[in-house]
Design goal:
5-stranded parallel beta sheet, alpha/beta, FAD/NAD(P)-binding domain, about 30% helix, 5-stranded mixed barrel, 3 domains
Length: about 475
């Protein structure tokens, strides 16, 4: 039996990235996956949701085609066709990742893995059904040994205990992302990232959407200006947003919620109710206790190098509870892999959480990077509307703005809402990470007309030298 440099438990973004990087550096890897290769991101998260958002974008474009001089007399959203395309995109992505792992000679084991000791894992082999919901075990158990084990077991949707997850009207994001019939109406509990993305998808495809949010505003972790703008845009689309409302019960498609300002109880009926209040790390308590592994319900404890307290056992991705962003998990996987492959005495690579772009794929998109300072002393705050950008004017995407917090001519943080802002904010992320003087970047020629040009425009405005607009 092969002895491995590392055995990885979980084939999501962090797990398969670690596997590839270890292989690149000369280590032999085994990857154990109980579900589909690609993990949550590929099968029930990023990939299918963004596929459906793309269909929603097309539906919105067709609905508004008249303003571009293109007349479309009628159209309909063929949701089964949307679902079929979504499923094909997922299958293609899963196949690509599997091929990537095989190219790097990673041994893939389908089945349930159990860490029995540092460096030893038992795998109860099996095969998933077509929908990926049930594992059929074939009775074979394989023992794997290796120098290291990486825990990359991901996360699962959080359902509060007073809601019956088996109620057919109750859906998690995992289930909603795989439906084949468009619901006439949809209630969403939670006005955070997941809730707003699904509100965007289904409202633009014709569903009547209601969001019930416990806090005083949607996207409460973002700047209030961002919350106000996306609320205005969604409500204009017909989405009903009930902030400061507490969900009291949900049964057979009927939700009761209390308006915490007035005490009034409202009832909302819908064939589907999405619970989008967050995700929890998948934690194998009994196994971790047996190993002496430090963990909480939020995840496995790791240091800055992705090591757990048990030598030879590492953890990455959602399983650590540090972040549920796929790109953070990928970076954790790479950091763990490189540290595993370091020679004795070599300095380890530290995981850096300081600059993490976070994107919300609403329409328009929202992105934030850096830490907004609480103390605004000597901090310059600038806000430039998307409407001043020529490309946005040409393509008729005037909604949104770019906001920056700047001190000593360096960007501390930036948040933006607007068309394709996810594609233009990496420049800002790089500036924050490299502590670049904004004047140096403002003097670099940016192509005209482009959406990315609004970053230079914002920097110029902060320097009181904008020549292409005034506010």
């Amino acid at each position: 039996m092969t002895h491995y440099k590392a055995i990885i438990m979980g084939g999501g973004p962090s797990g398969h990235s670690a596997a590839v990087r270890i292989s690149q550096l000369g280590g032999k890897v085994a990857l154990v996956e109980r579900d589909f290769i690609g993990g949550i991101c590929t099968n029930w998260g990023c990939t299918p949701s963004k596929s459906m958002i793309e269909s929603a974008k097309i539906a919105k474009t067709v609905a508004e085609s008249g303003k571009y001089g293109v007349k479309v007399n009628s159209y309909e959203v063929d949701f089964p066709a949307v679902a079929k395309r979504r499923d094909q995109v997922v299958a293609n992505t899963r196949e690509f990742i599997t091929d990537l792992l095989k190219h790097h000679q990673v041994d893939i084991f389908q089945g349930e893995g159990e860490i029995v000791a540092p460096g030893k894992m038992l795998v109860r082999k099996g095969k998933l059904d077509k929908d990926g919901e049930t594992m059929h075990y074939d009775g074979e158990t394989v023992e794997l040994t290796g120098d290291n084990i990486i825990i990359s077991t991901g996360s699962q949707p959080l359902i509060p205990p007073f809601i019956d997850a088996k109620d057919p009207s109750v859906v998690s994001s995992n289930r909603l992302i795989s439906i084949n019939k468009l619901p006439e109406s949809l209630t969403i509990v939670g006005g955070g990232v997941i809730g707003l993305e699904f509100a965007t998808i289904f409202s633009n495809m014709g569903s009547k959407v209601t969001i019930v949010e416990f806090l005083d505003r949607a996207l409460a972790l973002m700047d209030p200006d961002i919350s106000a703008e996306i609320t205005r845009i969604l409500e204009a689309k017909g989405v009903r947003i009930l902030t400061a409302h507490k969900c009291l019960s949900l049964e057979k498609g009927v939700m009761k919620a209390e308006d915490m300002r007035s005490g009034k109880i409202v009832e909302i009926a819908a064939p589907m109710s999405l619970i989008a209040i967050g995700r929890n790390a998948v934690v194998h308590e009994a196994t971790y206790q047996k190993l002496g592994l430090q963990f909480t319900r939020k995840g496995v404890g790791v240091d800055d190098y992705q090591r757990t307290n048990v030598p030879g056992i590492w953890a990455v991705g959602d399983a650590t509870g540090r972040s549920i962003l796929a790109h953070v998990g990928i970076q954790q996987g790479i950091v763990a892999a490189e540290n595993i492959m370091k020679a004795a005495g070599e300095p380890l690579r530290k995981m850096d959480y300081e600059v993490i772009p976070a994107v919300i794929y609403t329409m328009p998109e929202i992105v934030g990077v850096g830490t907004v300072p609480q103390d605004l002393n000597d901090v310059k705050v600038v806000k430039v509307p998307f409407a001043i950008n020529l490309r946005a004017g040409i393509e008729d995407y005037p909604d949104g703005f770019v906001k920056m917090w700047i001190k000593d001519n360096k960007i501390l943080a930036s948040q933006a809402i607007g068309h394709n802002v996810s594609e233009i904010m990496q420049e800002v992320a790089n500036m924050i990470a490299l502590k670049t003087n904004i004047e140096d970047v403002s003097e670099i020629i940016h192509a005209h007309p482009t959406f990315a040009e609004i970053i230079r425009s914002t920097l110029d405005y902060a320097l009181d030298k904008a020549v292409d607009f005034y506010l």
